[in-house]
Fold this protein.
Amino acid sequence: MRSGLRQMYCAAGPDSLTAGKPWRLSASVVVLAPRGLVPENRELGNTASGEARQDYKVCLLRRGARSSFMPDVMVFPGGAVDAEDGASACQLLNAQADDLDAVVRCAAIREVFEESGIGILEPLSAASRLQAAPHGGRSAWRQAIHKDPSQLTALCAAAGATPATSSLLPWCSFVTPDMEHQRLKKGGFDARFFVWPSPPEAAEQLAEALADGQETTGLIWLSPDEALAAQAAGRVAMAPPQWYILRELADNCPFLAGVAAYASGASRALVRDYPIKPYPTQLEESEIAEFWAKKSPGAEVAKAPVMALAYPGDEKHPVFPGPPGARHRMLLSGEITSGAGRYELQRSEVSSIPLPLKEVMQDWRRLAKL
């Protein structure tokens, strides 16, 4: 299983097949909790003007300062898919060995528990049994799974539960751009993101969620508005994928009860079904000036370079281009690699992309099973 996953090449562009090393598969979960069920963050909460528009909070973890990749950046719980996740999917879900979706979902649930202590299990009440289970409670189980991912199977047996994989809503997948992929020693990621709108029954474990103190050093709950405002003010660092997801939630999902319907809606087909692999694109001087006029009136454009990354559906995306004039891109400036940059999303409605998606995705799945 490990060799198969490590050979995962993303078919988001022809160059992906010849870049020389595989993209690593990873899985993350955007955990959403009703306001009032999780602690308020007095330092970073309510940084947006007025009250936050959302009736829920998002779980954010701070990566360790010594992390080799984007230290101190705020991320969602998640991490690399491991070989043992394939065995867990087969044993716990009766999945086939080549069921990549089941493997990724198992990995996502394992990572959430390992990094935050939140158990996305079926039944959900089973998570409370872990305190009385062998191995010394929830904290000990987290350490055991950190050392050996296959312990997820033992955890489920002790709790009398299975991973609640069907409760994870597919949201999007981000593929590390070629320039960054080549720079990283182990290569970049094909990062799959899910959203989990937590039910009221999860209140106890949501309130007790903590960072693992190893890969992550802090855990906070912020609404999308609060998180975006904190990043804009330079109070937290955030990578473009996390910022993009929070931006979409802030703009389209004011209520937790409506997240599931929005996630599966036809309007999200472009973001949900096409792998988002960014490509650098050239900006006109007028576009750069407009960017800085919004962010910092009076800034000297010559001293403030701006990068534009085209996403699927943008007219300048080389693999999944939209019609002339279509926009789906991020404008970035500042310390991008540290997550401290200034971001802006430009997006116009794109109803279709003139590309045979079916054939491309078939190639993607075929490559995933190499």
Summary: The CA atoms of residues 49 and 91 lie 49 Å apart. The chain has 13 helices and 14 strands. The longest helix spans residues 100-116.
